[in-house]
């Protein structure tokens, strides 16, 4: 039997990158650019991790290819449904002696080849029989074996040629099959290679906002000051009517114990014109001093803390162990009969072991989408969550007692600012803001394990209407305020629903977190000159 080859002589297969979505895939590629591990160790570690649905192949150590994935130029491909594997012999120019490379690296191949050659005296047959045995030991079991074919294979068929010219070519073919959805026992493939498992870049699930000091920039601007505790609607409308070339000044809209009305105005202004700059103060500041600090700033959002201007930025949140929802009590989900509420209910039951759910909404049992087949006691209640009396009655009726609140109710339709008056009914604010405040007041004396608010990126980036942005910023501020008073709370600013983001957010040390997807990270793919200022601290592709 040939002597086993040294580790340095084992061909390195392509790197198998996979992730749950495009953001995570690009972040993985960007992280690999900074890795100092060997190409073989990275190939082994990438191949043997649990694969995700979005996959792409990269030649080992090819920085140009990694950069293409990290930038989004080379996107991943989703795994097709139920691919079929066929072993085929298309004819070969292989000559006796080629088996030596395979025999040196794979003892099973060597033993099988020697046996078959001794029994049948047919070199090509012995080679292909030995290769079939080796492939089956790696978990590849074909649905068919064909000698040649003249017809095209159908879209679900994947073909592996049984006459690879080298081990390197065989490993590349295995990587191609893996990317297309064929399971491969990579631990067996790498056996004897000497490859070591190394740490891979962690997938970022959560992002947070942070304030970074920036140099003062003096200048002239018209000031509009919104005092603490001001009426949200009247000041919001006044601001939107006169929003050109202004510094809008709020007080304590973004602090550790924020003023909720100021926070809502802050969110509303994210949907206003780009010429509006919002400055949040921690104490009263004379106009002349304020203009000296930020009058000429191009930052859209600023905070003055101890006389120093700070700019709003986005950064990855620190990893924290998740804190599962307490399954011993009742979990109240507002907006529970909507699409997100139904998905959340199923997740709470399946992954958190929740056995008592109250799904509250205005429609209640009349809703079109009601969760079915849940292994739990599910009660559907028709209530207005902005009505204190109805909420208190519902909480009092919970058996077992309430242990968690998840507020995901929302209304998306709203009139344009130009056609609104302070007296105009506001379904957006009522569904999110008023309901959240009522839930807070009704439960602040209860020993809850979780108080989760479903916010939106609109609160920070102004991607929706003015009221929707204001309402979501209010939720973020409420979560921050509850944390400041020792109460459980987290506000998740969603890009799109993802149960892994929900689970990660439950353990976050931050009161407000962002999920990936159509998120801050996506926006950093834009040309640098049009990336929003608050995103400039997020590395592109990370």
Automatic annotation (TrEMBL):
Residues 329-500 form the Ketoreductase domain. Keywords: Transferase. Coiled coil: none annotated. GO terms for biological process: fatty acid biosynthetic process. It comes from the Bacteria. One of its GO terms (molecular function) is fatty acid synthase activity. Signal peptide: none annotated. The keyword Acetylation does not apply. This is KR domain-containing protein. It comes from Amycolatopsis dendrobii.
């Amino acid at each position: 039997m040939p002597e086993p080859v040294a580790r340095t002589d084992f061909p390195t297969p392509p790197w198998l990158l996979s992730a749950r979505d495009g953001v995570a895939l690009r972040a993985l590629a960007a992280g690999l650019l900074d890795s100092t591990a060997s190409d073989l160790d990275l190939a082994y570690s990438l191949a043997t991790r649990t694969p995700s649905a979005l996959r792409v192949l990269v030649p080992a150590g090819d920085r140009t290819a990694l950069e293409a994935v990290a930038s989004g130029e080379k996107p991943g491909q989703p795994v097709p449904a139920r691919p079929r594997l066929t072993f085929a012999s298309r004819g070969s120019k292989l000559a006796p002696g080629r088996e030596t490379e395979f025999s040196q690296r794979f003892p099973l191949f060597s033993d099988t080849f020697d046996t078959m050659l001794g029994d049948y005296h047919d070199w090509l047959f012995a080679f292909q029989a030995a290769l079939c045995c080796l492939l089956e030991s790696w978990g590849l079991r074909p649905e068919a074996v064909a000698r040649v074919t003249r017809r095209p294979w159908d879209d679900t068929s994947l073909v592996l040629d049984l006459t690879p010219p080298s081990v390197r070519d065989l490993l590349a073919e295995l990587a191609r099959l893996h990317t297309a959805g064929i399971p491969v026992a990579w631990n067996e493939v790498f056996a004897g290679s000497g490859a070591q498992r190394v740490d891979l870049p962690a997938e970022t699930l959560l992002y947070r906002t942070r304030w970074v000091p920036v140099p003062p920039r003096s200048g002239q601007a018209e000031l509009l000051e919104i005092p603490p505790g001001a009426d949200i609607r009247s000041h919001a409308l006044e601001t939107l009517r006169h929003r050109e070339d202004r510094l809008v000044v709020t007080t304590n809209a973004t602090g550790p114990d924020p003023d909720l009305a100021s926070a809502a105005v802050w969110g509303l202004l994210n949907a206003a014109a780009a010429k509006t700059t919002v400055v949040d103060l921690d104490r009263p500041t004379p106009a002349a001093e304020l203009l000296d600090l930020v009058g000429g700033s191009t930052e859209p959002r600023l905070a003055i803390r101890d006389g120093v201007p700070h700019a709003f930025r986005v950064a990855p949140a620190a990893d924290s162990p998740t804190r599962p929802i307490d399954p011993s009590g009742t979990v109240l989900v507002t907006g529970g009969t909507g699409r997100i509420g139904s998905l959340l209910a199923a997740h709470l039951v399946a992954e958190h072991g929740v056995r008592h759910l109250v799904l509250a909404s205005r429609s209640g049992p009349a809703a079109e989408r009601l969760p079915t087949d849940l292994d739990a006691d599910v009660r559907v209640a028709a209530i207005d969550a902005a009505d204190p009396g109805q909420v208190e009655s519902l909480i009092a009726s919970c058996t077992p007692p309430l242990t968690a609140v998840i507020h995901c109710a929302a209304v998306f339709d709203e009139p344009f600012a130009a056609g609104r008056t302070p007296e105009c009914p506001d379904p957006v604010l009522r569904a999110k803001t008023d309901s959240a405040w009522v839930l807070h007041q009704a439960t602040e004396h209860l020993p809850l394990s979780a108080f989760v608010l479903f916010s939106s990126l609109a609160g920070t980036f102004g991607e929706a209407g003015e009221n929707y942005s204001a309402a979501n910023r209010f939720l973020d501020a409420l979560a921050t305020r509850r944390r400041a008073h020792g109460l459980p709370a987290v506000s998740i600013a969603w890009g799109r629903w993802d149960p892994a983001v929900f689970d990660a957010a439950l353990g976050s040390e931050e009161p407000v977190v962002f999920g990936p997807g159509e998120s801050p990270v996506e926006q950093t793919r834009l040309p640098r000159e049009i990336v929003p200022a608050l995103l400039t601290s997020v590395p592109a592709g990370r």
